[in-house]
Amino acid sequence: MTQLSILFLVAAIAFGIAKWLRLPQIPLLLISGFLISQFGFEPSTEFLQTLVTLGLAFLVFSAGIEFTPNRVRPNSRAVLMVSVSQFVVIGITGYAVAVLMGFRGVPALYLGCAVCASSTLVGLRHLAERKQHFEPFARLVLGTLLVQDLIMIVLIVVLVRLPYGAATTLAGVGAAALVGGLAFFCQKWALRRFILRMRMDAEALLLSILAVLFIFVAIAVNLRLPAVAGAFLAGFALSSFPVNGLVRGVLNPLTDFFIAIFFTGLGALLVLPQSNDLITAFLLALVVVVLTPALVTLVAEWNGYSSRAAIDSGLLLAQTSEFSIVLALAGLGSDQITQDEVSIIALITVFTMILTPFIARDRVTQWLLRLHPNWRRLSPEEGLTGHILLLGFGAGGMWVVKPLLAENYRVVVVDDDPVVVAQLQRAGIECIRGDGSDEQVLRRA
User: Fold this and answer.
1) Does the N terminus or the C terminus of the chain have fewer Cβ atoms within 10 A?
2) What is the mean pLDDT of each run of 10 residues along the chain (445 residues)?
């Protein structure tokens, strides 16, 4: 009880400091948990793992509530291509790095799988803090995160059961599909009708929500599935509109509490590995932070997204998932990996999550736009006169340009997005590639 009280106190202080100074909350919670573990506070590993699993189950449940199929359907092709390409390419690269660093077989496989998905928790949190849920890239990011969550659940089931043979593995996948089918039935019909017709007050609604969570977790555990798989599918069962809106309103106060528990406990669980393992963690984190934005940008642009939206998506996806911790703990529990590999995976997750709020910024996006290979090809023209200038094309740019062109006005558009500029040039509209606030670009325009 004393250990739990100390963790709660430290988490509350870190959370308060983050709110007061307007700093990212996750890094402060992780650092505070790590610091108290280094200065005399030594809770048992089993206690910390239980605490992290409890916090993670609730957070995964909250993420499942966001998994509304309608969010993915309009951009399904782009979402699937980004999700699968990131999962495969980053996973294979991570596995190759692990092998080069001396890991073999199952441990290398776990390290590769741990870096191939992004964090739904960090993505949702970042979009909420910056009020970007309705930005062009937000649906792509959310769809990608949620599809990857589903893949990770299946992957965890497969990896844990793999040593016991193909029959056991297939039985695990079948059990996961069974619980998924139950969640789909509840999402489509049962829970939607029950909650909307009962018209419960906030307390009764909260109890009903928690009952759904515990029932699905119990079903998953009895079918020998990870508890977080049941938690995620329980969230999906409550994700239909307008039920998800009611559920979010009730759960929001609890979400911050469990975020504090999870990240403070994870920080306290973190043990710095030996030098070789530390280098491995750094290289794998580098793969995630460097390769993910480039890969996501390439695939998103190929699917018709603007360069800015594609780069924003890539930067926001450049971290490893909370499911990486679930994967590591599952591998440790089944004796497939050691505590050293768990520490490497935890360190990668911590480092990339801490870095996300600092790289997923407009300044970084602007800098990367200037490095886009189309920059030279789409350089500004010289000697433009007698024209109407449109600074920034945006979502409504065509509504402005078309009437002007119909009246035979000469229109020149200034935009820094190479994909937008290329599309306008193909349509025969004069463009200048550059920032509308750049003095040199404005002189040429």
Assistant:
1) N
2) 75 81 74 78 71 82 77 76 94 95 91 92 81 77 88 89 84 90 85 74 83 91 87 87 79 81 80 82 94 93 82 92 86 86 88 88 84 57 75 78 85 78 80 71 77
